[in-house]
Amino acid sequence: MPTAPDLTALHDSLLMRTLRCEPTPRRPLWLMRQAGRYLPEYLQVRAAAGDFLTLVKTPAAASEVTLQPIERFGLDAAIIFSDILIVPDAMDLGLGFVTGEGPKLAKPLTADTVKTLSAPAADHYHYLYDAIALTRRDLPATVPLIGFAGAPFTLACYMIDGSGGAFWRTRAMYRADPALFHQILSITADAVATLLIGQLAAGCQTVMLFDSWGGLLADDQYETFSLQYIRRIIRQIKEKSDAPIIVFGRQCALSLAAIANSDAAAVGVDWQTSIASARKLTDGKVALQGNMDPAVLLTDTATITAEAQRILTNYGTSPGHIFNLGHGIDKNTPPENVAALVAAVKEHKI
Ligand code: 1CP
């Protein structure tokens, strides 16, 4: 019999209290891409799985790599090991991962194939819900589990261009045929809402939306092509769950205030925006998550400690700061540097 999670311990955890902007004895911390190639124990499980997508779709292995950084560093939250591209995978766009190059879709969308596009049903993601249940069972009672998905705009970039880069096809499409682009965003928003509601039902305490490419849009396009769909997802989640939602828009500084008004509990801040500016822009309405440049983790203990203290101090003393990086950890990061960062943040008392 799986043990039921200790809901009081989770509710009172550092992360969940901070998401409600309640005071805590110290700031919670976790790191974007905390499970991954900089960890030798991850590389071992990844090699045994064969390829990245098999790892994502094997619940025991995905759960094992989710737990690895918690066990090694004592971070205050786990993020389920998966990828934003499981949505285009469920849409049958032919997802593959080319070693050293990243994701590639064999069947990127065209005006013709959009006609047959639909939001995949919740049961496409059984492997993920199983990984979440296994992970929740094995996590310490005070460590919340974060579920996630890509924001519709960011997913559309991959679905239209087929791989990462400057997304020229996408940028041409929303100018040449905005109606077609809105159709893609609309279907994708419903798909993402279904996925996130499923992750919360499976055992996640909070969910995060990654709008990693939102910064490709001009600030006066952000509402139209991204934020209105993020709000639609938040509305759909809120019909089913009280769980707090985190929204991370990368290079979206001019839209931070608007994102803070989206009914998200927390806004992710990239390292190009200072945490003090982000606080001014969001006016204490939401918790903030971020924002150390991941490159700092390629330096030394003294530099890492000083930079962590600078960010902690610049945020100020109000509750509502989740320490994190401003983007994903780099694969060349020495694990001992992550340990030094964790020690520096844990020593800082509000
Ligand atoms: O070889 C490997 O092991 C694959 C590298 C890798 C990893 C570790 C990919 C391929 N995805 C992941 C896991 C992943 N992806 C997580 C795991 C949880 C954790 O944080 O520990 C998360 C949250 C993601 C989210 C993700 N995937 C984003 C949004 C966050 C971000 O980094 O901006 C994006 C844009 C992706 C697409 C993707 N998947 C993988 C790569 C290399 C990429 C980026 C490709 C590009 O730059 O366009």
Describe the global form.
Answer: globular
> What is the first-to-last residue Cα distance?
40 Å
Number of strands: 9
* Helix/strand structural class: alpha/beta
Query: What is the alpha-carbon Rg in Å?
Result: 19 Å
Commentary on this structure:
Helix content is 48%, strand content 12%. It has 350 residues and is an alpha/beta fold. The strands form two sheets. It has a seven-stranded parallel sheet with strand order 1-4-5-6-7-8-9. It has a two-stranded antiparallel sheet with strand order 2-3. A hairpin with a 3-residue loop joins β2 and β3. It is globular. The mean pLDDT is 97. Bound molecules: coproporphyrinogen I (1CP). Coproporphyrinogen I binds at residues 32-37, 46, 52, 79, 81, 83-85, 102-103, 148, 164, 210, 212, 328.
Give a brief description.
The protein is of the alpha/beta class. The protein contains 16 helices and nine strands.
Secondary structure layout:
Elements: H1 7-11, H2 14-19, H3 40-49, H4 52-56, H5 59-73, E1 78-79, H6 86-90, E2 95-98, E3 102-105, H7 111-114, H8 126-138, E4 145-150, H9 152-161, H10 168-176, H11 178-202, E5 206-211, H12 219-238, E6 245-249, H13 256-260, E7 266-268, H14 275-282, E8 287-292, H15 301-315, E9 321-325, H16 335-347
Helix pairs in contact: 3-5, 5-8, 8-11, 9-10, 9-11, 10-11, 11-12, 15-16
Bound molecules: coproporphyrinogen I (1CP).
